Amino acid sequence: MYQTDLFGQSQFPAQKSVKGCYLIYEPKGRAREYAALACNVYRGCDHGCTYCFAPSATRRQRQEFATSQPRANFLTKLQKEANKYQAAGIHGNVLLSFTTDPYQHLDVKEQVTRHTIEILHQAGLNVHVLTKGGSRALRDLNLFTPADAFATTLTLLNDEQSLKWEPNAALPQDRIETVRQFHAAGIPTWVSLEPVLDPAAALQIIRETWHSVDVFKVGTLNYHPHAKTIDWSKFAHDAVKVLSEFGFCQHTDPDTLQRGHFYLKRDLACYL
């Protein structure tokens, strides 16, 4: 069985996790809609996003989770796991990261993400980075290839609102400009419009970024009372309309997305 990479540029054996590996793993549940394989570079995240699901998912108090730290012997263990994937002939995309951010402030000092990318590349694995770190990621731009991808989560455009919801993440325009720079360098890009905090802002983000974004992934807001204030049916239809106006086509298989596709996560697609 074979599958294409994110933008259909090449074919790899179908991705699956290797027995005995836990740093490079197959996500479950909602996360599986974003990636077939993933790796969490750090323990915790210092961005302090108020809507973040990761503290509860990792069974940690929010304040403790925000005091992020490197994982013990992470790079040594990662090298061993990457070697196992290479020996098994498994290639494809590894997403960094779900329960942390690879370009949080901690990475400026530790630079574990850079070494992670190098190790994965050496083992024949490609890297998809999903971050709210903005221009902090530009330090590693020279490591990315057209078989990799750079992605950012975009929720709002107003700085004051962003600081309220995502107090230590890069500001929206910094994230948008970073996507543009990766795109200009020939690196595939995608944007995660999840969580959606303000439907009007999410639609405006599409209008302001579509020319530098190859794929949009659109979701809802989960595990937060603010979600009940949003008309998800209206947003789902509006998102499809706006994305279609800019030439994007809906695709329903998250593992075979190509340039010009958009993907509605199941939580949102059910409202169409």
Counting DSSP E segments of at least 2 residues, the number of strands comes to 11
Named CATH architecture: Alpha-Beta Horseshoe
CATH class: Alpha Beta
Any idea what the shape is? Answer: globular
End-to-end separation in angstroms reads 31 Å
Strand content: 15-25%
Could you name the ranges where pLDDT drops below 50 across 5 or more consecutive residues?
8-14
Give the averaged pLDDT, no decimals.
Answer: 93
Q: How are the strands of the largest sheet arranged?
A: 5-6-7-8-9-11-10
Radius of gyration: 17 Å
Q: What's the number of structural domains?
A: 1
Largest sheet data: 7 strands, parallel
What fold name stands as the CATH topology?
Answer: pyruvate-formate lyase- activating enzyme
Order of helices and strands: EEEHHEHEHHEEHHEHEHEEH
Helical segment tally?
A: 10
Name the descriptors.
272 residues, alpha/beta, pyruvate-formate lyase- activating enzyme, two-stranded antiparallel sheet, 11 strands, 33% helix
Care to describe what's here?
The protein is an alpha/beta fold and 272 residues long. It has a single domain (2-269), classed as Alpha-Beta Horseshoe (pyruvate-formate lyase- activating enzyme). Helices cover 33% and strands 15% of the residues. The chain has ten helices and eleven strands. Strands 5-6-7-8-9-11-10 form a seven-stranded parallel beta sheet. Strands 1-2 form a two-stranded antiparallel sheet. It is globular and about 50 Å long. It starts with a strand and ends with a helix. 41% of the residues are buried.
